[in-house]
TrEMBL record:
It comes from the Eukaryota. Keywords: Disulfide bond, EGF-like domain. Residues 164-200 form the EGF-like domain. It comes from Timema douglasi. This is EGF-like domain-containing protein. Gene3D superfamilies: Laminin (2.10.25.10). SUPFAM superfamilies: EGF/Laminin, Spermadhesin, CUB domain. Disulfide bonds join C190-C199. It holds the Pfam family EGF. The keyword Chaperone does not apply. The lineage of its organism: Eukaryota, Metazoa, Ecdysozoa, Arthropoda, Hexapoda.
């Protein structure tokens, strides 16, 4: 993350990673959860910024906004790749949204000096950005903005009550719901008359919406 984000609740940081072994593969593998507030704006930059990005790094940032929000991500000077890698040993930027459809959606991006701006809006409140470099590092330059999702409740109704949530940490279940892991799936066990993926809607709300 950039060192000078604007807004409340956006954890911004960048890490300097010294490099001594250019023949090592995946010398650094790290994941971070970045909790955003409902008014967060900020920048998303590559590791070591403003120095050149390091090679042989696998670094994932999980961006999590409050429920009922979406994350607007804009990445600059990139081009889409049909393959999960970039030519010439260059690093790749991988953006994933596990809620975008039944199996999730992935974008593989390569750095390009004349590339265009790519805008991605999360389906719900999370999106993941992975910097995966091989022989050469990958430059990342982007911005983040959190906005209210006016279609949030309607989106929840796309799935059934058995739909899984992305992770139990932090607990995504609302209204006293309990997050339970079973193998590779995590689901919310809702209390009382609450229902849907994250126990967000009450049965009375669904009735008013004509969905019962």
């Amino acid at each position: 993350m950039g060192s000078g984000p604007v807004g409340y609740g956006l954890l911004g940081f960048w890490a300097f990673m010294p490099w001594t072994c250019r023949s090592c593969v995946n010398l650094v593998h790290e994941e971070r959860i970045i909790n955003l507030s409902s008014v967060s704006t900020g920048v998303l930059l590559h590791l070591n910024y403003p120095s050149p990005p390091p090679p042989h790094v696998d670094y994932i940032e999980h961006l999590v906004a409050p429920l009922g929000s979406v994350i607007l991500l804009e990445l600059y000077r990139v081009i889409l790749s049909e393959e999960p890698f970039c030519p010439g040993g260059a690093g790749v930027i991988e953006v994933s949204d596990n809620y975008a459809d039944m199996n999730g959606t992935w974008w593989f991006l390569c750095e390009d000096s004349v590339g265009e701006t790519l805008a991605i809006t999360s389906f719900l409140n999370t999106i993941h950005v992975r910097q995966r470099s091989e022989q050469f590092g990958v430059r990342l330059n982007g911005t983040i903005q959190v906005k209210k999702d006016t279609n949030y409740k309607l989106k929840l109704l796309r799935g059934s009550e058995e739909s899984s949530v992305e992770s139990c940490l932090p607990n995504p279940c609302q209204n006293g719901g309990k997050c339970v892991s079973s193998g590779s799936r995590q689901t919310c066990q809702c209390t009382s008359h609450f229902t849907e993926v994250s126990c967000e809607l009450s049965l009375s709300t669904k009735e008013v919406m004509g969905l019962l």
